[in-house]
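Comment thread on ticket #2218

A.B. wrote:
> Attaching the input chain for the structure job we discussed in standup.
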Amino acid sequence: MQNRKRKIAAVLIATVMLIGLSACAETEPEQEKYVSPTFNTEVVTKGETPKQETTEEAEAEDIELSTGTPINGNDLETELSTGTTIAGTYENGMYYNPFIGLAIQSDDIWKFYDAPGVAEATGLTEDEVNDLWYGVVSPYSVKTMTCCIAYRKDTGTNLIVSYINPKLYYMQNMTAREYLELSSRAYKDVEVKNVKYLGKVYATVEIPEEKEGYGRRVQFAIRKDDLIVLLTYTLQGEDTVEEAADHVTELIVP
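C.D. wrote:
> Ran it. Output below, let me know if you need it in another format.
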């Protein structure tokens, strides 16, 4: 099996338009336990009124992905705030993202990359990753931001949560659907559609493995404020998107 970090770097190159990310090293992090920031630093916000998605709820197709029981933010030991945790936060084997309203659970099979691991996969330095995660650098001031990489140890299937800032690509009003249509236009017979996922309407696209060379890719995108939030599943072997999504659930933000 190809090196997992090299595959993740390849996925990031393919899914984040106009961004060139350096290839990663041959080895993956030895550290399995995630040591994370607390994300209590206030991030920079912007004053613009975002363009709303034009897709109606009635046009979206329901998808059957097992996402478990929704998690209520009021039940968590640490209070969550969309103003202070825009990158998400890690706690007790879970990744919480109040900005978009999702939670990812780690277990004996699914693990998270720590800041050095994400830096190695993206070509950034560890300090640059931590600056984004802590809110020292706002995601509104960078073209792309990798918030989380979860991977399955036995197969290499992974999930990447990232933000795209279309304004810095001179495409300020780009919708999530338009982003996926643009990023997948090199592939024939690939269709972008709207689905109801994690309680919201997402645009989604599936790139077959034979078109990629490093696994079947399924992406979900949604516009949130002035950012496009991108969930990228890259499936290896016999893994299905239903199995990969089984550790992802909706986070109900108070």
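A.B. wrote:
> Thanks. Noting for the ticket: Helices lie at 4-15, 115-122, 126-134, 176-183, 209-212, 241-245.
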